[in-house]
Amino acid sequence: MNKNLKANVKSQIPKGWLCELRIFYRLGMETLSDIIRTGWMNVIIITTMAAILMIFGACFRTVISISAFSKELGNALEISVYLKNSADAATVKSEIQKFEHVESINIIPKAESWSRLKNEMSLPNVDNPLPDTLRVKVDNPESLEIVFNDIRKIQSVEDMSYAKDLAKKIELINHVIKTITLVVIGVMGLLTITIINNTIQLVIQSRKEEIEIMRLMGVSNWYIRFPFIMQGAFYGLTGSLLALVPLAYVQTGLNNVHKFFMVPVPAGAQTTVLLVMFSMSILFGAIGSFWCIKKHLRV
Q1: How many helices (H) and strands (E) does the chain have?
Q2: d(Cα 55, Cα 262) in Å, to the nearest integer?
Q3: Helix (H/G/I), strand (E/B), else coil: 122
Q4: pLDDT by residue (tens digit) across 226-280?
Q5: Which of 171, 186, 196, 265 is the most buried (most CB within 10 A)?
Q6: Contacts with 229 (C-beta within 8 Å, 6 or more apart), sequence order
Q7: HEC-encoded secondary structure of 209-243
Q8: How many Å apart are CA 252 and CA 261, to the nearest integer?
């Protein structure tokens, strides 16, 4: 009987898109009203958010450029493989190409190496003592040692070498870059959530009686929560928009550095930074509001 009654009541509730639009309009107006109530504090909140996001965006964009420089330097590294006199260079090349992370292989015949050496130095007229050499490039610096160990197992290989110290330093730089990125994101998230949490707490205190009346009237928790969550997201969005101005100067400066060192600018670097900055600022703003609501409203 109760189930039939509930079903009959639900069937009488209007569910058209116009009704939903009115609800969203009302929630939007509530959000705007809360923002207006906050008054001059909005300026402090938004400028603080913009400063945090500007620092985050500048660090993130710089990290991308450093990563590009590191990758460009790493791509110049290669493994020199010296073959035995009895080895066939083409056969060894085809064998190495099967290994994972190998990007390209260049065969340098011993006659070519000997000719270059004779042009550079005054040498006696003796038989060519140099071996055939393979220059092996890998897909990233971190794979150098893996490929090196795989090639070393080939019996036709006499000796090998690569700039191990430089490869280790590049690998260390990449790890540091990833760590810095995670730390910056964590700090940015913590500061954003803290600022939004304190702001929404003040708004809740100013509307405490009104919210109590709404709850006594049976207003849904979602209806009460939504304007506060939207207010937090609004601060994140507005702060991101304000941070665009200084970030444009950072982008121009980094592009000039890339041009000076003739290193290509990472494709879509600025777009990536903006997408991450806007997404995270809005998300953290909404999360900060939501946590504050759960703590102080219990809805």
Answers
A1: 10, 4
A2: 26
A3: coil
A4: 888 888 888 889 999 999 999 999 999 989 988 887 888 888 888 999 998 999 8
A5: 196
A6: 286, 289, 290, 293
A7: HHHHHHHHCCCCHHHHHHHHHHHHHHHHHHHHHHH
A8: 15
